[in-house]
Each structure stands twice: as C-alpha cells, then as structure tokens.
Design brief:
With 536 residues, the protein is of the alpha/beta class. It contains 14 helices and 14 strands. Strands 1, 2, 3, 4, 5, 6, 7 and 14 form an eight-stranded mixed sheet that branches. A six-stranded mixed sheet has the order 8-9-10-11-12-13, with helices on one face. α4 runs antiparallel to α5. The radius of gyration is 25 Å and the shape is globular. The two termini are 29 Å apart. 48% of the residues are buried.
C-alpha cells in the first residue's frame, strides 16, 4: 500500500479530532473527510481501502474518546474504540461498493444515506454510542446551529458531509483542469462556500421565543464532589453523604425555591426497594428538609430495586433465593412532603457499564457488566414514569440520567410527551479530569437548542451548570469542587419542528438506504444496472 494513502488516513483522523469539542478548531470538520474521499477514489483493492478507512476512524476514536478506558478495566475502552471504528467503516465500505454501480453524484448521495442510517441505528440499538455523531461537532458553537430546532444533530451531520463532498469536488477539478484562482472561485469554490455559509447565516436570524418572566422558577443545583471510586459507594458513608447534600442545599435554598437537584446515584447507592421508599431514612430526612422550603420538590439520582410478581416480571429479571423476581435501576426520584415518590428509570444504558447488550439472548453474560456503583450485571430497563410532574406549578420535568442526554431523538420524544424543563443528573467522575466530562457538558447545549428548553445540569464531580434554550451555558462550576448553583429557569410549552415531527432526515436516509441495498442486490442479476459510471 502506498504511503500517501496511510498519511491521508491519519490526516483525516487527526482533522476529525482537532475539530471535535472541546478543541477550538471546529471549522476543520468541513475538510476532515476529504482525505477519505480521495482514498475511496484512488484505492481500488477493497482490503487496502478498509485498512485506510479503519485507520482513520481508529485515530479519531482513540484521540477523542481514549478516556472511556480510564476505568478499573482499561480493556473495555480499547474494545470500545476499536469496535466503534469498525462500525464507522461500514458505511464507507458500502459507499465504495456503490461507486462501482452508480454515477459519481449518486454515489455521494449514497454515502450520505449510508452514514445517516448508521448514526440513526447507533442511537437505537443496544450497542449504541452516539458520542461521535458528526452533528455533535458544533457543540462548542451554538451560534452556528440554531437551526437544529428543525433538524436535530442529523442536520449537522448532513452539513458536514455535504461540505466535505463539495470541497473535495472543487479540489479535484482544480487539479484536473489546472484552473486559475479566478476560474476556481467563479466555477467551483462558490459551491462549497454556499454549503458552508448558508447554515451559518440562517442561524443568525433564528432565535428562541422570549421567556415569560411570570413563569420563572428558582432552582438549586448541588455538586457534592464525591469520589465515585473511593467514597461514593463505601457502605458506611451513606448518611454522611446525605448530610453533605443537605448542608450544600441549605446554602442556597430559600422560600422561593421550586426545585432542588442532586446528581446521579445521590441516594441509595447500594439500592433501595421502590415499594419501601417512603420508609427510607434518606427520604424521611429529605422531607424534614423540604418543610423549610414548602414550594420545593427534590429531584435526585438514585439506585432503586423493584420486586415483581411472576406474571409481571420481565424476561431478564433476576431471581432471589426465595424465587422472587427483581431488577435494579439507575433511577431519578422526585420527593416532596407528600407520601408520593415519583420514579423514572434510566432507559438508555451505557453498553458494558450498565447493560450487557442483547443479554436476553445470551443470559450467561448477565454478570459481565462492569461494576460501576456496586450493582453487577445489567440494570433494568422497564419504564416507570416518563416525566416527573408538578401540577401545582404546571411543570413536567424530564430527568435525563447521564448518557441519556447524548440521545437527540430520545430527549425530543419526551419533550413531545409534555416535558417543559430538562434536568440532567450525571456522575462524570468515573473518567477523571479528561475531555469526557467537558464534552458531555457541551452536548447538553444541543438538547437545549433542539427542544428550546432550559436545562439544569447537576454533576457529582462537575461540571454543573444551567443552559438556556439558545444553548448558552451559565454558572459552570469547576471540576472536582463542591459547588451550589441558584438560578432561574422558565418552563416552556412551545414545540420545535424537530420535536413535533421527529428526525425526518434520518428516517428519509433509512428509506433511501434500503432502496440502495435493493438496487445493489438487483444489479447482480440485471447487467444493465452495473457500471453506470461508464456513461457519465
């Protein structure tokens, strides 16, 4: 294999990394894929092409998300980066195959359809990892992507792909026809310029509707800074941690506070039965706290356990020694001074750490999930409440738990169900002071823009913050420090186009992908469908 193709692959991976949050070189994303388009055109051997493409995506994955291996089991991170790079290579292999049957422009269209379909699948199956969706590249630039309220992040992915394709076509024709600078600008350069600049200009004229000042609600967000490895799940520290949460809350809460927000797994780190929550000492202590703030409700992460009757137990529920069926949940609870505890179960679980993918087909793998939080094996996914309701204040909260906040479609679906305020509770301390928690923070901007909802983010070790519907971050707290935030947020009731109609771009891409696959199958039997590029 020629060295220039290896260099081109490495260049593409490095450009993708440099363009990614939280590095400042975002514009590089518009040229980062052009070396791969060059490789696809020049490398004819399928195996060598795969090696180049895989090398590019492996470079990007390792450079951007190496921190996923910063756990008690580093091999899990190595596997995640290698496997994700392999999955990313599949749409490009399909594109390479399409170049044999389609015109050049049709092949580019096929690449867009294949990649958007890949990203859509990567948000829906149990091996999901939407962290590196191309549309996430603009999380540092909310002023560029106010139009995400129409398209979601798939619109950003389409923007990236189109820009790279048009830049590559202009570069190729410059080399082919030896154009002067004037000819290049007049004949070719204006095309990628329009593709890149039009969304930027359009974004400047789009703004979220103004908030109603009369509907402002005061929230208090706690960042306790509890070490998840050495302190959080230590058996004898539960009540001391609770005292810490209460002490920090009392620093900012007052009679106007409507919500107090604690991070992921703040309560019951070793698990508490949902049928007995009202009698837990932590819940009793919280209700004593809330008597001081009668308007307030407390939303907190928790580890809950649910016992089932045999006729209602899901297939993968565990069995106790007495034969009873049960499941653990990474949950969010809403507590007030009444006896009603509302519970939300995290659904989008982290593969490997919280969920063994497709364990229902391979039950012997049940206990292979990494031990994060003292619960070995997969968490349950049986739904409970979709939203945490507050009828008195006409507020419906969707409490996204950690990884869930990266899923555009999942968050939008719950806003469509009635969520008018978003809360993110997370524990980003597992991966240390790396880019992981910073990337996770800025991705929350995308959810705010897509849904035009206020976001309150409580992170165990940081970064806790408040994000407005335009994606602007306020009061970000330093990582690995105790902190408390008091802020005003406004529940909003309007629905964006993206929330109302869903991810139309991805759905359309799936349809075209199916048609392209049908065409590929038929072309094997109908000679006239092959090698149409010869007639360009």
């Amino acid at each position: 294999m020629k060295l220039r193709f290896i260099i081109a692959a490495l260049l593409s991976g490095c450009l993708l990394w440099l363009a990614w949050p939280t590095l400042p070189c975002t514009p590089l994303i518009f040229i980062a894929l052009t070396p791969l388009l060059y490789i696809a055109e020049k490398v004819h051997h399928r195996g060598k092409f795969f090696v180049c493409i895989y090398l590019a995506f492996l470079t990007w994955n390792v450079a951007t998300t190496w921190w996923v291996g910063n756990t008690t089991l580093p091999a899990s991170g190595v596997f995640a980066n290698c496997f994700n790079a392999f999955l990313m290579s599949i749409p490009w292999l399909m594109y390479k195959n399409s170049r044999k049957r389609l015109t050049e422009n049709a092949a580019y269209f096929a690449l867009i359809a294949y990649w958007l379909t890949f990203e859509f699948i990567h948000q829906t199956w149990e091996l999901s990892w939407p962290w590196l969706i191309l549309g996430n590249a603009f999380a540092m630039r909310p002023g560029w992507i106010q139009w995400y309220e129409f398209t979601g992040t798939s619109g950003g992915t389409l923007w990236v792909l189109l820009a790279n394709i048009f830049v590559y076509i202009a570069w190729k024709r410059l080399r082919l026809y030896d154009l002067s600078i004037t000819q290049l600008i007049r004949q070719e350069a204006w095309k990628p310029a329009v593709v890149i600049l039009f969304p930027l200009i359009f974004s400047q004229i789009i703004h979220p509707s103004p908030d109603d000042p009369a509907k402002k609600r005061e929230v208090v967000i706690v960042q306790p800074n509890i070490d998840p490895y050495d302190e959080k799940f230590a058996g004898g520290n539960v009540m001391q941690q609770l005292e810490k949460f209460i002490r920090l809350t009392e620093q900012q809460a007052d009679s106007n506070t409507r919500y107090i927000i604690w991070p992921e797994t703040a309560l019951f780190p070793s698990g508490a039965w949902e049928q007995q929550l009202n009698y837990q000492p932590e819940v009793l202590a919280i209700r004593q706290l809330l008597k001081k703030y009668p308007k307030a409700k407390l939303i907190s992460g928790a580890v809950t356990l649910k016992r089932y009757r045999d006729d209602e137990a899901p297939a993968m529920a565990r069995r106790m020694e007495d034969g009873a069926r049960w499941e653990p949940f990474n949950a969010a609870v809403q507590i007030d001074t009444s006896s009603w505890v509302q519970i939300y179960h995290k659904y989008e679980l982290v593969p490997g750490a919280e969920l063994v993918p497709y364990v229902r087909y391979f039950s012997f793998l049940q206990n292979l999930a990494l031990d994060f939080g003292g619960i070995t094996g997969s968490y349950g996914r049986m739904p409970e409440a979709d939203l945490l309701s507050n009828p008195r204040d006409t507020v419906n909260v969707f409490p996204t738990i950690c990884y869930e906040s990266v899923f555009s479609n999942y968050v939008a679906a719950h806003v469509n169900l009635g969520a008018n305020f978003l809360v993110i509770i997370t524990n980003d301390g597992w991966w240390g002071n790396t880019e992981g928690h910073r990337q996770h923070l800025v991705y929350a901007r995308l959810r705010a823009i897509e849904t035009r909802r206020w976001v309150a983010r409580s992170a165990n070790t940081g970064i806790s913050a408040v994000i407005d519907p335009a994606g602007n971050i306020s009061q970000p707290q330093p990582y690995w420090q105790e902190a408390v935030i008091k802020a005003n947020v406004t529940p909003r009731y309007d629905l964006t186009f993206y929330v109302k109609y869903g991810d139309l771009l991805s759905k359309g891409a799936v349809i075209f992908c199916i048609l392209l696959l049908v065409h590929a199958i038929l072309s094997r039997f109908i000679p006239g469908l092959k090698h149409v590029e010869n007639y360009q």
